Amino acid sequence: MRKDVLAFERHLEDNIFDLYFALRDGTYKHSSYESFYVNDPKRRHIHKASIRDRLLHHALVRVIEPYFERTFVFDSWSCRKGKGVERAVQRFQKIAWSLSRNNTLPVWVLKLDVAKFFASIDHGTLLEMIRSRIKCPQTFALIEEVVGSYGPGLPLGNITSQLFANVFLNELDQYAKRVLRLPHYLRYCDDFVILSRDKEALELVLPKLRAFLQTRLLLSLHPDKIILQKIHQGADFLGFVCFPHFRILRAKTRRRMLRRVTDKNLTSYQGLISHTRSQELAKLLLRKSYENRNTQAG
To answer: Per-residue pLDDT tens for 3-52?
Structure first.
């Protein structure tokens, strides 16, 4: 257990009552963040809140999430109960298979990514969206305190950031589904895809999505991650290269797994590849884990 958790638990009752009184009296102030980097797989700058603040974040999300959950579209797949990466990929492949009429018709995929999403979230725009759903002044003031504790943007690492990201991009989801009427639009965090048998329709919708992001959300599309391709070429989505009726892991993911595999993470890796056509990789992982174990023993 981490030192900060142990220190908080040592005086758990006192710490919880201190937080309670601060919230009751309206004197709660968010403390500063601990900053560090992780590489999983790309380098990310993480900001970790104190245990006290993280406790508050979890409580806040439990209270306000239902107010927003009911407004989210079905095809928003990130950080929601009953959703997640695996189900998002399954949904993607189900749509691709249906559109392709059992892989007999060409299907196009438009894949887009928001540039520097978390760092670019505008506090004023976000709070305007939240205010439309949260009418309690004390609760909204607390949300303002959490949002204003970091900036610009939102910190990677807060559970509140996950919810607020969905609140922010729900505007895009609603625009795509209700205004542009894109039935085969899916989003996972700041990655989103649209499938269609009509290439020209996807080409026409791209500038509309770009303009909406810029004018309403003050966001930009990543210029190097705008990809329009046929599904049979293999669409890169959430760590997998997806086809209508099967998927494989990205080459980079396979190399990273072989480089990092140990007895501790082997089962997790096997679970991940069980959903893909990766029988040879499964054998290689077993062999590599065995070799690493013998190297450490020697």
So the answer is: 888 888 999 999 999 999 999 999 999 999 999 998 766 788 899 999 99
Give how far the C-alpha of residue 182 lies from the chain's centroid of Cα atoms, to the nearest Å.
21
Amino acid type, 217: L
Cα angle 152, 156, 159 (rounded to 5 degrees) comes to: 110
> What's the mean per-residue pLDDT of the chain?
91
Contacts of 5 (CB under 8 A, 6+ apart): 51
Residue 115 in tokens: 């540039």
At 25, list the tokens.
């009296």
Do the beta carbons of residue 239 and residue 253 sit within 8 Å?
A: yes
3-state helix, strand, coil in the chain (%, to 5): 55, 15, 30
Q: Residue range 174-196: average pLDDT?
A: 97
Q: Are 227 and 111 in contact (CB under 8 A)?
A: yes
DSSP 50: P
How far apart are the two ends of the chain, measured CA to CA in Å? Answer: 30
Per the listing, tokens 């980097």 go with 37
Cβ pair 250, 236 in contact under 8 A: yes
**8 Å CB contact between 179 and 90:** no
C-alpha to C-alpha distance for 184 and 195, rounded to whole angstroms: 5
Contact 203, 94 (CB under 8 A): no
For 7, 70, 91, 237, 274, the CA distances from 85, given in Å and listed in that order, are 35, 20, 10, 9, 14
CA dihedral 221, 187, 159, 216 (to 10 degrees): 50
Nearest to 182 by CA among 190, 192, 191: 192
> pTM of the prediction?
0.87
